[in-house]
Write a structure and sequence with these properties.
Number of helices: 15
CATH class of the largest domain: Alpha Beta
Strand order of the largest sheet: 6-4-3-2-1-14-15
Number of domains: 2
Distance between the termini: 80 Å
Oligomer: single chain
Radius of gyration: 24 Å
Strand content: 25-35%
Length: 467
């Protein structure tokens, strides 16, 4: 007898709740179909389901996401970095207290006492005809962030070896839920032949029909749940072995929405609005926001971040603020709407020579107009960089291009090429190649758990409140 086992999966939703009713609708139909045929079906998530860019996730600190996963009938999940490093230690420690599914993440450990009761390294489930399937979960090792929140993420290769050893005597099939990214998944497949299937995420890659490396099938379904993934494994009971592994990703952007889920989300949004509706400050006048011009609000916000971090200099891009703030009562919900990014402040060390290169790069048109997606940024364009503790004098070429003419301190002192300065900025720039001198700094001091919008709230209260 041959038995087919279906695994449906999602990854990197990032609280894109507009798509969630389609996800639930598709899963209901798929589960009904496969279970009617007598096949075993499990539903799993690969992390970054939560993203505090959405007011529902912000108001409930991720617990509404857990409630939605419960109601959708998920069986097993692993954690992404958006679950792991955008919540305080206590918020994460209790995030899954009410989960009706298993949470597996073998390489995450609390450094503040015991791990949460819900946290498992592995889990084993059994099909209707007795096939034992072992699941391992792994998350990306952003320890510069995790350790500030009293967590540690161990080497995924070491934890894999330990987890496989735990499972191999009793598991017929081993599945890895990996929030590590495609290149890491490929390397794992090359190193660990015991793993049958790797379901991935984190780097938002889409593998429509999977990828096979040695004995392992790798799959992933992009981002925002525009696709849902499916893995079909076939077990031959007479031969006592796995005989087939298939992977697919299905576009569900035209799927009908589940009405019950839509109603649930409306209720959550109403409650989120109430929770976030508390007044932070009353503004006598509206606050103007512009992405390509210097504004008072961006200057004051940059000053706040400089003071908070005790840096020599601070620099923030104007695209962090998405909209104007009207006169009248301003709530935390308004601040979240204007500055929704899960971005923290970070202080890096750079020499004067390196800092000058950064300043010059920030005023180039291709930088200010860059439509960045990722690295925590949830806006439209990067916008003009604003500085605190440093004066930047610019001029314009004949073709209208702006360029940096002079850079000096408020007292008139020039930057010293050989002196090392502590510069506060958005942690966005410590990743990738946006500003190489920032990203390659050997010193990066992240300030958690406060987001830039928390500093915006402080700025509004301290510098825009009229007595």
């Amino acid at each position: 007898m041959r038995e087919r086992i279906h695994l449906y999966y999602t990854n990197d939703l990032h609280s894109n709740f507009q798509q969630w009713p389609r996800v639930v609708s598709y899963l209901k139909e798929a589960k009904t179909s496969t279970m009617t045929e007598g096949n075993t079906t499990w539903v799993v998530d690969i992390g970054d389901h939560i993203d505090r860019v959405h007011p529902v996730s912000e108001a409930f600190m991720g617990k509404a996401n857990v409630e939605l996963l419960n109601e959708a009938g998920y069986d097993i999940i692993t954690m992404g970095n958006n679950e792991g490093i955008t919540l305080s230690h206590d918020e994460l420690h209790h995030l899954y207290d009410e989960a009706k599914f298993d949470v597996v993440c073998a390489n995450l450990h609390s450094t503040k006492g015991q791990n949460p009761e819900w946290l498992k390294s592995t889990t084993m489930v059994q099909s209707v005809n007795g096939v034992n399937v072992g699941f391992i979960g792994l998350t990306a090792p952003f320890n510069d962030f995790y350790e500030l929140l009293d967590w540690h993420v161990s080497s995924h290769f070491d934890m894999l070896a330990t987890s496989i050893k735990e499972l191999k005597d009793s598991a017929d099939v081993i599945v890895l839920l990996s929030h590590l990214g495609l290149s890491e998944d490929q390397e794992i497949a090359r190193r660990f032949e015991e793993i049958d299937v790797i379901i991935g995420g984190h780097t938002h890659h889409l593998l429509r029909t999977g990828e096979k490396i040695n004995n392992t099938v790798i799959t992933a379904a992009g981002k925002h749940c525009n696709f849902i993934g499916e893995v079909i494994i076939t077990w031959d009971h007479e031969a006592g072995q796995l005989v087939s592994k298939e992977a697919y990703a299905t576009d569900i952007t035209n799927q009908a929405k589940d009405l019950q889920t839509e109603q649930k989300l409306r209720l959550l949004e109403e409650e989120a609005a109430r929770i976030l509706g508390e007044t932070v400050v009353h503004l006598q006048e509206p606050i103007n926001v512009q992405w390509f011009k210097h504004t008072t609000i961006m200057q004051e916000l940059t000053n706040t971040v400089k003071d908070w971090t005790k840096a020599n200099i601070a620099m923030l891009n104007s695209g962090l603020l998405l909209d104007q703030l009207p006169a009248g009562d301003i709530s935390y919900g308004d601040i979240h709407r204007v500055c929704p990014h899960p971005i923290n402040a970070c202080v890096v060390e750079m020499t004067g020579k390196e800092l000058l290169e950064v300043v010059r790069a920030c005023f180039k048109k291709d930088f200010t107009e860059l439509k960045l997606k990722g690295f925590g940024f949830r806006g439209e364009v990067l916008g003009r960089m604003v500085f605190s503790g440093l004066h930047v004098h610019t001029a314009f070429h004949e073709n209208g291009e702006e360029f940096v003419k002079e850079v000096y301190f408020p007292g008139g002192e020039a930057l010293d090429s050989d002196v090392t300065y502590r510069v506060a900025t958005a942690d966005t720039f410590t990743f990738g190649r946006l500003l190489p001198e920032v990203a390659k700094s050997e010193v990066k001091d992240y300030f958690l758990p406060e987001f830039i919008r928390d500093h915006l709230a402080v700025t509004l209260k301290n510098r825009f409140l009229k007595s």
